[in-house]
Amino acid sequence: MTVNPLKFGLQLGAAIAALGLAATAHAGDCPASDTRPDARAPGEMTPKNVTDTLLNSIELGDQIGVNGRSLRLRRLVIQPGGVVPWHTHTGRPALIITISGSITEYRSTCAVPIEHPAGDVAREVNGTSHWWRNNTDRPAVLLSADVKADDLPPAADHM
Length: 159
Hints:
This protein is mainly β.
């Protein structure tokens, strides 16, 4: 069997693009060249056009002996132009998956915005402070699984 290298290359390129593996080298993460402490000052401080729905939670004291903390799952819908304001994840790790749409993160340790398209998972740990904006023309839907401190003031619990 003879393989046409040009045809094979085009088919391979199409397959890679279909899998979403091309042209998104830095989707979901900060490029190493733009990562540094205090790369960005605090941004938007007021929520705008965002709904945050608690889907369920588990108190962790009886489960794993971590009193005063809960594991929760939330659904966030950020409308076009909507903002999840500046907040920190010190003491409250989270995993955020973009279910549909796309959302832009402005992280304290990244000099450039980070795009989170559908299917992307953002990892939020100690030292992460950031805010998010929907810069598209359609809603962004996110699921957030995070550990919440029961004594956390509401203003510090944006996401």
